[in-house]
Amino acid sequence: MIISETTQQAVVDNDHSLTSGVVRNSTLVAADIALSLLNQWSAAAAQWIDGTPLIVIREGRLLRDRLQCERIDADDILEAARAHLGLESLDQVETAVLERSGNVSVIPKASGERTAAAGYA
């Protein structure tokens, strides 16, 4: 998407030179390759660039300090639980992990635990 934007700027702006567009796009491609190589060679750099998975619900308990740090809320977790597993409340969630990709992985409570947590007999 960024490459298409820089190409558009090279074509539409006052500078219609081919060189300008090639330099801009080559710089973006080179930066992407350099970061991926740095990721591959250094675990510390990979952790800094890509981050690490973060548990935001553990044993059914919402870890609010982590949610605030990542600027997400319980509704985001509940949305992922509904979308992927059809869960209706956070009481049905055993563990939720904010993945490096930004997605939320949800592990539901066992069915016996779920009915007790949800208040069903």
Q: For the CA atoms, what is the radius of gyration?
A: 22 Å
Structural class by sheet pairing and helices:
alpha+beta
Query: DSSP helix count?
Result: 6
- How many beta-strand runs? 4
Low-confidence stretches: 113-121
How are the strands of the biggest sheet laid out side by side?
A: 2-1-3-4
Regarding quaternary structure, how should these chains be classified? single chain
First-last Cα distance? 52 Å
Amount of beta strand: 5-15%
Helix content: 55-70%
CATH topology of the largest domain, which one? CRO Repressor
CATH superfamily of the largest domain: bsu07140 like domains
What's the number of domains? Answer: 2
Biggest sheet layout? 4 strands, antiparallel
Write the layout of secondary structure elements.
Elements: H1 2-12, H2 18-41, H3 43-50, E1 54-58, E2 61-62, H4 64-70, H5 74-85, E3 93-98, E4 104-108, H6 111-118
Antiparallel strand pairs: 1-2, 1-3, 3-4
Helix pairs in contact: 1-2, 2-3
Notable characteristics:
121 residues, alpha+beta, CRO Repressor
Q: How is this structure best described in words?
A:
Strands 2-1-3-4 form a four-stranded antiparallel sheet. The longest helix is centred in the N-terminal third of the chain and has 24 residues. It folds into two domains: about 50 residues; about 70 residues, 2-Layer Sandwich (CRO Repressor), CATH 3.30.240. Strand 3 and strand 4 form a beta hairpin. The chain has about 120 residues and is α+β, with helices and mostly antiparallel strands. The protein is about 60% helix and about 15% strand. The C terminus is likely disordered. The radius of gyration is 22 Å and the shape is elongated. It has six helices and four strands.
